[in-house]
Design a protein that fits this description.
The complex is a heterodimer of chains A (about 100) and B (about 375). Chain A is α+β, with helices and mostly antiparallel strands and about 100 residues long. Chain A contains three helices and five strands, in the order E-E-E-E-H-H-H-E. Chain A has a three-stranded antiparallel beta sheet. In chain A, strands 1-5 form a two-stranded antiparallel ribbon. Chain B is of the alpha/beta class and about 375 residues long. In chain B, about 30% of the residues lie in helices and about 10% in strands. In chain B, strands 7-6-5-4-3-2-1-8-9 form a nine-stranded mixed beta sheet. In chain B, strand 5, helix 6 and strand 6 form a beta-alpha-beta unit. Chain B is globular, with a radius of gyration of 20 Å. Classes of the chains: A alpha+beta (about 100), B alpha/beta (about 375). Chains A and B meet through strand 2 of A and helix 1 of B.
Amino acid sequence: MTRARINGAAVPYLPRGVRLHDDRVRGIRVLLAPERVIQLDPVGHAILSELDGKRSLAEVILTLCTRYEAPPEQIEGDVQDFLRDLMDRRMVFLDGEAGRPA
Amino acid sequence: MRDDPAPRDIDGNPVRVGLPMAMLAELTHRCPLACPYCSNPVELTRASAELKAAEWADVFRQAADLGVLQVHLSGGEPASRRDLAEIAAAARDAGLYVNLITSGIGLTEARLRELDGAVDHVQLSLQGIDAEMADWISGYGGSFARKMQVAEWVRAIGFPLTLNAVVHRQNLDRLPEMIELAEQLGCRRIEVATVQFHGWADLNRRPLMPTQAQATRAREVVDEARRRLQGRMVIDYVPADHLAAFPKSCMGGWGSTGLNVAPDGTVLPCHAAQTIKGLAFENVRDVPLARIWHDGAAFNAFRGTGWMPEPCASCERREIDFGGCRCQAMALAGDARATDPVCSRSALHARLRAAAEAEAASDSTVLVYRRMTREKRG
């Protein structure tokens, strides 16, 4: 991972063409994207479920800390790594990037 | 209850059956373009034999129940179906992720707007970097200009766009410009796929076979572009088969994650599977999709590894690439069980490679275009 940390004030979101899906046949949650299906573990699913395109990364982390009663340092590290990987794969955008729907 | 619940491969070994993830729906074999590497079979299906929109809707529901998550609406050119919007909406209503694979020809802004809300992602084919190359390869004057117009509409509506560049000896040197074009069009992804030499492409080996130098250079171009574009655009690259040391894992393993429904409803483990003699394929008009997937002899034929002869049977890569492509083994070795001759461990590899090098050294630019015969045009 070579990318810089995501700024806490940035607003991450799932762009058009990337969405969460309940795979009822296999009993799992997946992320559907162009030519890709990614199986999500409970942590990944919890993170992506919080991305509403309105709240900042810092707010999302705070929400997750409260919900899972975990220290912010730990949650922040998990969220940063997870989201940066998906950003490299063009499955998570930050507000202000090209492709933001009007 | 069925009589014979234990699925077996072509040699009678028991196999384990998983669930399919993706379905290629070939809505029609009709296409205004005539690309000389088309993946459709050389024997094309008539329009009159195509599944109706209501039949596709039923197939999509069956596919979703079976575990399919993504459907790729393809052809031929899917826009050659006047009822494309109805078909796409049915796929969405079945709960599938809908990917439209198109040349752009036949789409208008109004037709694209009809697809808004049903189609998740658009994949636009690219035959060349300018009108001269693209119109020559596609055999269709004006195709390049039309495509660029379609890309504009796609962007205006907001569909995510992937450019799908098929590369070969005639256009591989222009790869850097293809990647630039994808950037300019605002693509999230570009797929750079070297021609697979089956079907129509097999008739065009001499004009299309890339050289070793081109393949080496393309790898460098892709690696450099991936570094430069990290976080901006994803590059998926399918290198030249004949110049690699090991074969590709075709379809991620026969009958493991994908299936293909042909225009007339024939269900195939891959789009070229009908070239394998001796396999019988069932039709979704006659047999439920789940039964074809789980019990169909053609799907079970090459599942697992039990059917493999040596050198595949004891190879440490047998569950990585599954011995490569069965159709290519059939075409080149005359036996669908054989090691794909593109594998460096195949006894036929040296001969295949020498042939590819001779083809790549040809200066032929004579293309055999994909055409329906008159009586098949329907």
